[in-house]
Amino acid sequence: MPLLSVKDLRVAYTQEGEPVRAVDGVSFELERGEVLALVGESGSGKSSVALALTRLLPIPPATVSGLVRFDGADLLSMPLEPLRAIRGGKIAYVFQEPATSLNPVLTIGEQVEETIQLHTGARGVGATQAAVEWLTRVGIASAEERLHSYPHEFSGGMQQRVMLAMAMAARPALLIADEPTTALDVTIQVQILRLLRDLQRTLNLSMLLISHDLTVVERIAHRVAVMSEGAIVELGPVAQVLKQPAHPYTQALLRARAAMTLRSARP
Amino acid sequence: MSLFKNRLAAAGAVVLLLLAVVAVCAPWIAPYDPLRVSLPDALLSPSGAHWLGTDQLGRDVLSRLIYGTRISLVIGILSVGIAVIVGSLVGALAGFYGGWLDGLLMRFVDTLLSIPTIFLLLAMIAMDPAERLQQLETVPLLGGVCRAVFAALDPQIVVVMSVIGLMSWMGVARLVRAELLTLKEREFVLAARVLGASSRRLIFAHLLPNAVAPVLVSATLGVGGAILTESVLSFLGLGVQPPTPSWGSILNEGRGTLGIAWWLTLSPGACILVTVLAFNLLGEGLRERFARR
Amino acid sequence: MTAYLVRRLLALIPVLFWITVISFGVIKLAPGKPTDAAMAFNPKVSLEARQRMEQLYGLDQPVAMQYAKWLGRVVRLDFGRSFLDDRPVGRKIVERLPVTLTINLCSLLLVLFIAVPLGVRAAVRPGGAFDRWTTVFVFTGYATPSFWLALLCLAFFGVQLRWLPISGLHALDYESFPLIRQWLDTAWHLILPVTIAAFGGLAGVSRYMRSSMTEVLTQDYIRTARAKGLPERRVLFHHGLRNALLPIITILGLSLPDLIGGSVIAETIFSIPGMGRLFYEAVMARDYPVVMALVTVGAVLTMLGNLLADVAYAFADPRIRVGGQS
């Protein structure tokens, strides 16, 4: 049985009286240990899919329908208590802007320990220990001292590592990463990607990776789903889709990427 | 929520319109002469003859309140007018020229803002501005203007108005300065400069008109504040002097009879509340409208 | 953080300078010579006293010299003598200061305890019934003259219901009370004045609290907190409120001038012997030394309060307390 099974997911917003369909009948499956990439331009609905899975979209402006099965349970109809246990615990998120996604008035130690305490039951010294381990694991040097640092004291790349530590500290089965490298410098992007791939392989982590960057997809994903205007237009193994795109939209995406690479290759 | 607020703003505008009508038509609407003393009729509770009762001197409260509308609106609007003129000038100078002038002016503004309003107000009144203003009449050009103004309005009212205005311009100055600082860098200003516009022309014809919106909002809200301030002053006996009926002074006169003649306290206060509320609602409505654009 | 604080302190110097200039200007602009007024109100002022006062104010010297001399005295906290009773102004102020400070502090606390929860609750459920009522309350509060409210409360609670005392700071036989009862008695007398003084702040702060909280709740880190599976309470309070309260510190600092000024009305109506009432009486009697001194003191107090607010803010916001990237 697949870890995550999404059937006919629909998300609509009412904007100034007009209903806007952000996600229009999306279906896909994700196996354990698999990395599925959701690719598309801004506005294609990919972020909405990511947030809708655990009902993180604010419900009055948004309406969500469909079936989302995670580990056998229906996430969309579950009561809030067990849903919160899954959020952060079994399904963790990493967002695009680490600078604003971390609480500026709390130390990173507090924020990482918060996840640990909530989802692993560890307390006090045990929680602190675990926090140090995870921070070290994601590549933050002198983690023990840095526990008392605040987010603004870190660079963008370090902040994203903290977010990863925070997400992974609860040992989730599924990591949803929404444009995790987009806001970072190019050199840092590579580092973070490497880290993600590393974590994924060692922990057999399932990942739903959202990106508009095909290079990122190539580096880390097993399968890719191409989204356009709220629907998935193509879905398949990465190598296949990128070499032989079936849908005209995918072809256009690839052509655009090729054009960019060609241009930058010129002296 | 927005619709709710919109309706409130519209209600405010309607109330203000009514008040304006009342103020203008006071002589025709008021049932009695507000200054008419009639001791046998003192302290009558509201009745058919006197809808809001009478005060210690037998004057009809309703009529006094109606005439009080004039005082409140005139002082409110004119003092804000003074504040806007002075504030815009100072703010424009500071924002446009920047540098040491800006620093100097803004420190001065900060200082005035750190003096508790009432303190500043009362201190100004303590300096007997009425005498000062009358001394101004000797100055050649200004004196003529002053004489004309004093002929039209009771000097005490002019005093109150000026004092309130001179105490409220700081907020406007900050606002205008902020607007100018951002507008200064915009393209149309650079274009005008290239075309050879003088500084004065730039300020008056181009920059200030764009600062109108926030100033208008601030002014509308400011009228409410000015009316409140005037009522405080009159209540303390330092504003409009009896027998001129100001809502604040009526409240002051009613102080002695608080326990017995509640109508002397309730109605003037209610008038102030409704008027200030109306201006505030209108101001907030304007703010939302301008913000949306 | 020290750099920030030093900058703030330095910025205060020109403001202090202007305050002294304005206060000095008050007395210089006062009509007639200060000595004339003293004569008018107190015929017992002798020729020697008059000469002494003339010398004190250095009325025979150029304005700049007068200012310098006056400044020298003010820095030593010598504000001259009151025209009314010839007592040192400084002493008169010091007598009244604690009362006013107590009222202001208590009303500040009252505002915090009521306005913050109001604003938070309204922000958490925007557009709801509570939010609408809070908005109505805020707007009405802004428009209500505080002295009118004071009169109504006086009439209702003091005269009609006889629940609360209507004037003064102490009961008549205060002296004979044991300490605890003295404290309770004073507190009893302060209930109405503090409530009235707090009134304006209540409307303003709840409004700012609401918008600050609303703003915070749209931030990314709130989404992260929810994505971590935290209970909503913790998201709102531990993550949200902590951030939303920061601007409120500044707002409270900015509301100080109004707070101090507000005591004039509360003290006058409830006959509390505080600084506000002293000011009012001085203005009525044209007691210029007191007026001028209080303008200075009022401004300085405000500045101190703002400084305190700035320090508090610097402490509370780690972005300022700890500085940039390492």
Describe this structure in words.
The complex is a heterotrimer of chains A (267), B (293) and C (326). In chain A, 42% of the residues lie in helices and 26% in strands. By secondary structure, chain A is α/β, with parallel strands linked by helices. Chain A has a domain at 97-171. The longest helix of chain A has 18 residues, at 186-203. The radius of gyration of chain A is 19 Å and the shape is globular. By secondary structure, chain B is an all-alpha fold. Chain B has one domain (61-292): MetI-like (MetI-like fold, Orthogonal Bundle), CATH 1.10.3720.10. Chain B has helices at 2-24, 26-29, 61-97, 99-114, 117-126, 129-136, 140-152, 155-184, 187-194, 199-210, 212-235, 247-254, 263-292. In chain B, α8 (155-184) packs antiparallel against α11 (212-235). The model of chain B has no long low-confidence stretch (mean pLDDT 82). Chain C has 14 helices and no strands. Chain C has helices at residues 2-29, 34-41, 47-56, 63-75, 89-124, 129-143, 146-160, 179-217, 220-227, 232-254, 256-269, 275-284, 288-316, 318-321. At the B-C interface, α1, α4, α5, α11 and α13 of B face α1, α6, α7, α11 and α12 of C.
Largest sheet, strands/sense/barrel of chain A: 6 strands, mixed
Q: H/E element string of chain A? A: EEEHEEHEHHHHHEHEHEEHH
Strands of chain C, total number: 0
Query: What is the approximate shape of chain C?
Result: globular
Alpha carbon gyration radius of chain C = 24 Å
Name the shape of chain A in a single word. globular
Radius of gyration of chain A: 19 Å
Number of helices of chain C: 14
Task: Give the strand order, joined by hyphens, for the main sheet of chain A.
Answer: 6-7-8-3-9-10
Low-confidence stretches of chain A: none
Mean pLDDT of chain A: 88
Mean pLDDT reading of chain C? 81
What is the first-to-last residue Cα distance of chain C? 15 Å
Strand content of chain C: under 5%
User: Percent of residues of chain C in helical segments?
Assistant: over 70%
Poorly predicted sequence stretches spanning 5 or more consecutive residues of chain C: none
Estimate the strand proportion of chain A. 25-35%
